[in-house]
Structure formats: structure tokens, C-alpha cells
Amino acid sequence: YTSDAVNAINYLRDLKTRHGLNVVAMSNSWGGGGYSTALHTAILRAAKEGILFVAAAGNSASNNDSVASYPAGYTTLQGSTQETAASYEAVISVAAIGSNGTLASFSNYGAQSVDIGAPGVGIVSTVPTDSYASYSGTSMATPHVSGAIALYASAFPTATAAQIRDALLRNAAPTPSLVGLTATGGRLNLEGIFSSAPPTVPTVHDIAITSVTPASSSIRKGRQVQVSISMSNQGNQTETFTVSLSATGGSVGPAQSLTLAPNGSATAKIPWTAPYAAGTFTLTGRASVLSGETDTADNTASTTIKVK
Fold first, then answer.
1. In this structure, are residues 229 and 287 in contact, taking their beta carbons and an 8 Å threshold?
2. For 267-302, how does the pLDDT look when each residue is reduced to its tens digit (9 = 90+)?
3. pTM of the model
4. What's the rounded Cα separation, in Å, for the pair 114 and 61?
């Protein structure tokens, strides 16, 4: 049932979001049925968690541009009635080719709806009862692509789902039988996708400290001042942050907790008592996620105060 497929996708998404498993892609060697809002919604929600959806194009020798074959026909660039679109295309539709590089006679195709070809004729695989057998179908081509994604993700663990998909499709090996019949006009090319690492993704902080004041002030020895640490929540959900202050001298007050809505801002005030020694001291405000999304790192900002 379609409901089983939805449950399966939601299960994998749950393994990643709640249990911390590094799920990078789902391999979907199955098909049938028409468009389902529930299934589309499940694929969209998984895509937003960085999970690619690799799907068999189908085995009816038909043009998927004319008549969609599901689930390969879904797109995450369009939303469902229950979920908005993702920021990238997570679906990868796979056609089958033979050992001579030609499109398999049974394979579906589509210049816009089928992305890439992979070996799918006479593929030897394990079967029940501790044995092997040879099968043909886009269902055999699909896991070749899924496996390539897993290898790429293991080599480049910081690559995003969008970057993995781009590396896979951009480096497809040109194949005459696939030109005009797939979006890439090519077949899976492992050597090509490992030819270059994905671009470095800048560190993103859900919490951003926008200022620490007073800045470059001058105070007397032993005096206490209130240090203001201003911050904003750049994440997409309400989160609680721990805000603390450290100093190269003197003593600081206890850390505080602040809860901020998305795009919300606030200022924490933490006291600092200057030492009984002259000099210039650095005060650093630090914010880290206490509950909510997992941030990439703490965020810090500093100021200096001169003691005289």
C-alpha cells in the first residue's frame, strides 16, 4: 500500500532526525500507482532533512515526460497541499542500460523526467537461500546510483544533499543512447564524481552574537560593569540558548538561558568585576544551543576594556 511506502520514508527520516543516523539517500526500486499527496509530502519532508530519493524510472519502455511513472515522477521543487517545496531537487530518476552502453529495451526514459542511466541488464545480485541470481530492470540500475551516493558521502562527509546530487549528475559520462532521452544524456560515472571535492560550506550558526558592550571602555580597578551580549536566532525554529561570558582577568557572573523565536533577538546582561590590576582585558560572549536544532558550533564575539 502507498501508506506503507509513506511509513517507510517517515521511518528513515526519523532515524536521521531523532536517532542521529547518517541517512543520506533512499533507494527506491519500486513503482506503481498514481500521484499521492501523502507520498509526495513524505518525500518533501525527507528532502528537507537532507535525504535524497533515488527511484527506478520504470520498465514499460515509455516516455515519463508524457505519462509520469511514480515514485520517480515526484519532484521536491514543487510542494504538495500539505508541505512546501524543498530548496533543491532531491529526486533522482534512473534508467537502465546494458553492458554495451545502450538504453535497455524495457527502460522508461524522459529528457526532462529521467536523470541518468546505470547498469540494469543481467545484474548479478544476492537472493534468498544464500544464493545469487541475475536480473534486469531499472530496479537493478537504481541501487548502483544509491551506492555511488553513499560512497561520495563517505568521502566528503560535509557535502550537502544538493551538492551530492549535482556531483552525480554533472559528471555523468556522455552516452549516445541516452542523449535526448535523459536529462544528463549520460550514465553513472564513479571516476567523474570523485574528480573534485564539493565546495566548502561556510559555518552557519543558528545563534549569532551581534555585539558585546561596553566596547573599548576604560574603568577603574575593582569596579563592576554590566556587559551586554546581544544576539539573534538565525535558525528556523524556537530554540533555547546558553549565554556566558569569559574574561582574561577579573571575575564574571553566571551564565544565562534565553529562548528565542526564529529571527528573534534579545540581550543578556552579565556582570564583570575588574581585577585590582591595570591593563587591557578581553571579554568574550559565547552562545550555544541548549535545546532545539543542533548548531554547527558555538558563536562568540569579544570586546576589550581598559582598567586603570
1. yes
2. 889 999 999 999 998 888 888 776 555 554 457 788
3. 0.67
4. 12
